[in-house]
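Protein Entry — a single chain follows
Next Lines — sequence and tokenised fold
***
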Amino acid sequence: MAKKKVCVIKGDDASPEFVIPTVELLEGMNLEIEFFWALTGEEALQKQGKAFPEEARKMVDEADCTLFGSSRNMTGGLGYLRWGKKTYANFRPVKWMKGMRSPLRKPEGIDFVVVRENLEGLYPGREGDIERLEPLKLSDFITGQVLDTSMKGKFAVRVITEENTRNVAKATCDLAMKRKANGGKGKVTVASKYNMLFQSDELFRRIVEETVRQYPELTFDQQVIDNFCQQMIINPQQFDVVVMPNEHGDVMADGAAALVGGLGLAPSACFGKDYAYFEPVHGTAPDLMGKNIVNPTAMILSAKWMLEYLGFEDAALRLERAVYGVYEEGKYLTPDQGGGSSTTQFCKAVKEKL
């Protein structure tokens, strides 16, 4: 196998403190992977005047994928990885293992993935003053009243397209099939506000249903996002793969992480048709910078998904088992999990398990 090329973006604030040891773990596994470090974010801004220099962009383009830390904003490369590379499907796994500090009395059996549409919805930030909508003469779908554009205020445009939704729906079904082959439920749930957003969210719901019907081995479920929020707390074990529009998926995936112990345990993987990047769900933790206590689990498990993507399935499984072994043993957990160990000590424990 030819060596795979991985671009590493350390990120800002405390991010390098969990990115660097994660890469060291991967290097210690002696895989056919070559790592390239891109200068981005605050460091690049200070040294080169740009948060995402052309050299960093070139490194991303030439790599097979990117391992991304956490950045303060989109300018440090995240915007390019998402919209430039059109990585439309954001996988956010939620899995409890023994030793994780869940607030639930019975977290056993929680193992599902939130698939968040990654490009559309509200998040591209198409916003402005309400008065700019005056030429459109927009009417309320429920009351039929024309929008009063004389009022002071702001608007945001929310877009859901058929093509992108089909891409995300297919990625969701393919993931459900893969999980089913490994003992999963083979179930796809779509959650959106289709009971009120009769056109946009209903389009999303309908396309997901149509796509699931093309996979006879899978079962289909639909839930209004309000109900999903309740069911996620009442009975999270019922879910397998749950797909949602952008902002719904972002909010609900963060909430789902709390079920198993918090954002420190929440990895993610973002896929397009010909590129992918992998990052923890949490932010840069500026308040923890320099303290060496950030939980690296989310970063390490994001790297596990990267190994699968690159074709190193056995190594990915070994890495995952090593992480869960540290939790089961319970001796080297970080403060967010009720322990007193440092980031470095946790990573050392994972290395020993490997």
